[in-house]
Structures are given as structure tokens and as C-alpha cells.
Write a structure and sequence with these properties.
By secondary structure, this protein is of the alpha/beta class. The protein has helices at about 30-35, 60-70, 80-90, and strands at about 10-15, 15-25, 45-55, 75-80, 100.
Length: about 100
């Protein structure tokens, strides 16, 4: 009996670091916002580790932008995979609206 693997998951790495796994798209935006809501309690940068993110569409990017506007600091997108980095580059996200790309 194989275990169910969710399409998307947010895992807290502590110290305002969140590891995103799977696909961040229109269907999973709510899970992303719920998984990161705890980061809004204290000011400072939030790090989203994208190492295990396999896909992001414009809905996912809009959710990241929304988080960046609500957090008392910025959002750092750490280690985006090539397909996600391409989306971020095309849309000129680095440095826009409190979002930085790292790695």
C-alpha cells in the first residue's frame, strides 16, 4: 500500500525558513498561504527554499508577492530550479516588491 504524496507541501525549517515541495499553482495557493501564515507574527525576512519545488505558475508567483507585501521584511527565494528561475527572470521578479532570488 503506497503512501499518498501531496501535490504540494510547505515544511517549516525553523528560523523563518519554509521548504516548498511539489507544484505551487492555482490549486495549491491556499495551502501555501496557510503554511506560511505563522511567518507573519514577527518582522524580518522569510526564506522560501525552492530546491524541491517542481513547478510554479503565475498564481503561485502572485501568492509569493502577496506574502512579500504582508510580511515585515522581504521574501528570499532560495535555490529555485531552472524552470521556476526562468519564470522569475521572464517576469523580472528579482528585487521587485520585496522579493530577492538567492542561489
Amino acid at each position: 500500500m503506497g503512501g499518498f504524496i501531496p501535490a504540494f507541501e510547505v515544511l517549516s525549517g525553523g528560523d523563518r525558513v519554509f521548504h516548498l515541495h511539489g507544484e505551487l499553482d492555482m490549486a495549491t495557493v491556499d495551502a501555501f498561504l496557510e503554511g506560511t501564515v505563522g511567518a507573519l507574527d514577527t518582522p524580518g525576512d522569510i526564506v522560501l527554499d525552492l530546491t524541491k519545488l517542481t513547478f510554479m505558475d503565475s498564481s503561485g508567483l502572485k501568492a509569493v508577492g502577496s506574502l512579500a507585501q504582508r510580511v515585515g521584511g522581504g521574501v528570499v527565494l532560495r535555490c529555485p530550479p531552472p524552470n521556476v528561475l526562468r519564470l522569475l527572470d521572464i517576469l523580472g521578479v528579482n528585487g521587485a516588491v520585496g522579493i530577492r532570488i538567492e542561489g
